Amino acid sequence: MDPLLAGDLAALPELLQATRDYATRLLAGLGERPVARTPEAPSPATLPAHGVGAAGALDLFDKRWAPGFSASAGPRYLGFVTGGATPASLAGDWLTGALDQNGSNRSGSTAADLEDETAGWLRDMFGLGDGFTGAFVSGATMSNVVGLAIAREWLGEQLGVSIAQQGVGALGEVTVLSGTPHSSTVKALAMLGIGRDALRLVPTLPDREAVDVAALEAALRDLGGRPAIVVANAGTVNTVDFDDLRAIAALRSEYPFWLHTDAAFGAFAALSPEHAHLVDGLDASDSVCVDLHKWLNVPYDSAVQFTRRRDLQVRVFQNAASYLGEPGPRPDHVHLTPENSRRLRALAAWFTLTAYGTEGHREIVRRDIAAAHRLGARLAALPGVRLLSPVRLNVVCFTFPGDVAAAVRAIADAGEAFLTPTVYRGVPGLRAAFSNWRTTEADVDRVVETLREHLA
Question: Would the pLDDT of 233 be above 90?
């Protein structure tokens, strides 16, 4: 054995303790760490021929790379929709690496059963019925890929062909309808061979990102009975708008379509009694995307894909090899997602759900929603600042006179907060997304003061 490797094995308890202490120091300073300054990257190093051991690597990381890492796990990182990692989920994630289970099959481990249990808990949390099954994937993009791949196979079923066997060319023309699809949906269509041009944007309601259901019905009617895919949105990126899922699902009595709902973070509205009505009808979907490293606050990368048609899911993703079993009533996860080898992402989610339960996560969601409303109210009182939409859930979208790009840089370089730019209905602006378990009213007030200074 390499002497450095042997030495690290012999000193493993001390090494893990040193790593634990280092991580504790990082997390203890997270609230005051510069949130997302634009750092100057170190000059590239050459591949080491002779290593320095794990302790040396930790020291080198601390000096060379750690100073440039963002505080994205902290309370004032409001860019994109980024959660943090609850203490329990972090513990689960560390054990995921320590146990190093390949969750792709059920041979010799209960890891796959833990994933099934966790997916079932999440299904119940979001109000989906027993007809749904879930599998873990890397993020919302891959969840949308899986859901739309199943939808693609359903289209083939309607036309009497198997896309998994014959290829997407057997479908002919495909139509995908959506009001305000997330960019990952468009990416998924390209990856699946359906193509970006298959997407037809349907008009939305006035001053809304929610689809006009009457316009959607007209678009379906124009297809003359040809089956289609409808992508509904439960929480759009800019304004967290929600399609009327129940009304959309009701259209299936007249028109054949697969209903895929992108509820990447909007599904968590189900945890807030005041906002649960926004996801009414989510259980009427055929497939649902939920991103867990957003509002569940588990470490990257983690999402779940739910569907009613596991049989079609297996048909798409089945991996046939002599050393793999045939998919039965409880198929190995290798037959359910694009990955063959896959880390046990479910363990971090299992830990945080076990540790804090539905009530603990409901408190996080409600506190983040309150923080968004607090920021929205305070921004609306600032001279020149204008909200571009009502604060519906956890995102504040606003504009102001001046250079948006320059403001983004100035806010980031101040180190107090991080927001991302956007364009809403042709108007450049900023969006602040709240989904971190640490965020408090005091953090909101610090963000307001930073914005007051840099939006002037």
Answer: yes
